[in-house]
Fold this sequence. Notes:
With 327 residues, the protein is mainly alpha-helical. 76% of the residues lie in helices and 2% in strands. The chain has 14 helices and 2 strands, in the order αααααααββααααααα. The two termini are 17 Å apart.
Amino acid sequence: MSFVLGRLGQTVLVLLVAAFVSFALFRYVGDPVNNMVGQSASLADREAMRAALGLDDAFILQFARFVGNALTGDFGMSYRFGQPVATLIAERFPATLELALISMLIATGLGVPLGVWTALHRDHWAAQALMAASLIGVALPTFLIGIALILFFSVWLGWLPSFGRGQVVAIGGWSTGLLTTSGLRALVLPAVTLGVFQLALILRLARAEMLEVMRADFIRFARARGLKPRAIQYRHALRNTLVPVVTMIGLQFGNVFAFSIIVETVFQWPGLGLLVIQAIQFADVPLLAAYLVLIALCFAVINLAVDLAYVAIDPRVRSGAGVRRTA
Length: 327
């Protein structure tokens, strides 16, 4: 509990720093007043709009007002859409979260087993083919993979839709496409596109870590004790392999969630990525600041989940925590 409370305190500090930095940087993105009133507006109209938005106040006062309102769930009004920022983010958040979750499930569900298998059978032709394919997955740009998948599966074969989210179902305040056939079909191509790079990265990392662990002294000792190869590989070696792999998976999930802008643009996926592109073009400071605060919160939650996963994976972490409590 003390560990979790300490991490929550760090999370609050991270959110404040992220909000301050984003608020300071986006002041120089552009003048939203020019986009809101148009070129034909008079100087008096511009000044009135600036005063109404509170842009005439000092920076510290604007930031303090933003933080105070954010604590109540009010991130202000979007300059671009004229709607509450919290409403806009709540509408787009489910689409981006589902895309990130499915892509990481694909990458983790295939990357870890294939990485371990290629490490245990590194001389097999299939293992060498997988390593060559992983190099291609790491090297190819994400947008190029998306365009190639659209060309093959949507244009030539006509199997899957090339844009949109399909039909969604509203469950309370949450909209999901996972419960409809068209929603699942629309999710396939963007999820695969977003997961290819992550799959190749996790596969190569899992292979490298498994090879390193299999050369460790405790593995030699386990063999000398006469343990069965499968027990050595999957009971002892795999648990030690998963510690750095879990770290990578957590960080990559944060990256996928935060930087899915390219995939959402290619497939016209109605998530946060498209929203951010429009906000940047319009210098929508409240929306951009709220987005970065949300991303910082997601990274903090993911890091906390990864640290807690260490306790379940590595017994040395539990024993180390117990020693510190005793001391």
